[in-house]
Amino acid sequence: MSAAEDKKFDMERVACPYKECGSSDGFYYNTATKSGFCHVCETKTGKVGKYPRPNFRNDIAEWAEETYPVNAMKPPVHLRQIDSATYKGIRGLDQDVCKLYSIQLQIDGEGDPVRYAFKYPSNVKYRGFEEKKFWTEEKGALLDLFGPDFNAGSSKRIYLTEGEFDAASLYQALGKSFPVKSIPSASLSDKFIKRNYEYLNSSKRLCTQVNKMRQVKVQPPDSTNYFLRSFTMCL
């Protein structure tokens, strides 16, 4: 830890409040902000060392909250008010890629990151910044592919991923030259397949990152026959 980081805390190298960690000197606490961080937690338990973290009371020792008081907890992530949004600093993605893919990091009035927003053609999907919690703005299943409106048939291949961040990351890694989209989840409904069949079928080669989906039965609209398309691992 650098000297600059040390100055953020007035209680240094003290016992970690998290029972699973149990470090005797890895925790740093700020009495003004009533928050802290353990630099041993992630290595030892695989969990983030931030204090407090979501549902922290289930994980801390009996003495911890009296020794390290916390501020009143914020509402659940899906109920917090959003004050601003940015395309910068999102998981190593270039700002122009985030804009192209309509991926935002949304922030509350205190300047704390709250959630990621992924804009689909007919809905918005959210993911908590700290919690891996997903929800949508409108109720109902997502029936669209995620990603920019690349012209169908404009490329000999289209890359398909499972996950919005994966789609944007792969597009950037491929030099921002090939169309990359994401399916909304690993489980695809008949409605989704029918809605996106023509677009996916327009490409001569469909490349995928999705290991689970080596073969998918695609049913064209108004047809009882199944079109079997093998997904080719192109990476």
Q: So how many helices?
A: 6
Q: What is the number of independent domains?
A: 3
Shape: elongated
Counted beta strands: 14
- On the 0 to 100 scale, the average pLDDT is 82
C-alpha end-to-end distance: 38 Å
| Secondary-structure element series | HEEEHEHEHEEEEEHEHEEE
Major sheet attributes:
5 strands, antiparallel
Rounded Rg: 22 Å
Q: List the uncertain runs.
A: 1-6, 210-235
Topology:
Layout: H1 3-6, E1 11-14, E2 27-30, E3 35-38, H2 41-45, E4 50-51, H3 64-67, E5 84-86, H4 95-101, E6 103-107, E7 113-120, E8 123-128, E9 134-136, E10 157-162, H5 164-173, E11 180-183, H6 190-201, E12 205-208, E13 215-218, E14 227-230
Parallel strand pairs: 10-11, 10-12
Antiparallel strand pairs: 1-2, 2-3, 3-4, 5-6, 6-7, 7-8, 8-9, 13-14
Task: Provide structural commentary.
The structure is a single chain. The strands form four sheets. The protein has a five-stranded antiparallel sheet with strand order 5-6-7-8-9. Strands 1-2-3-4 form a four-stranded antiparallel sheet, with no helix packed on it. Strand 2 and strand 3 form a beta hairpin. The protein starts with a helix and ends in a 5-residue tail after the last strand. It is elongated, with a radius of gyration of 22 Å. The protein contains six helices and 14 strands. The protein has three domains: 3-67, no CATH class; 77-136, no CATH class; 157-230. The protein has helices spanning 3-6, 41-45, 64-67, 95-101, 164-173, 190-201, and strands at residues 11-14, 27-30, 35-38, 50-51, 84-86, 103-107, 113-120, 123-128, 134-136, 157-162, 180-183, 205-208, 215-218, 227-230. It has 235 residues and is an alpha+beta fold. It is 18% helix and 26% strand.
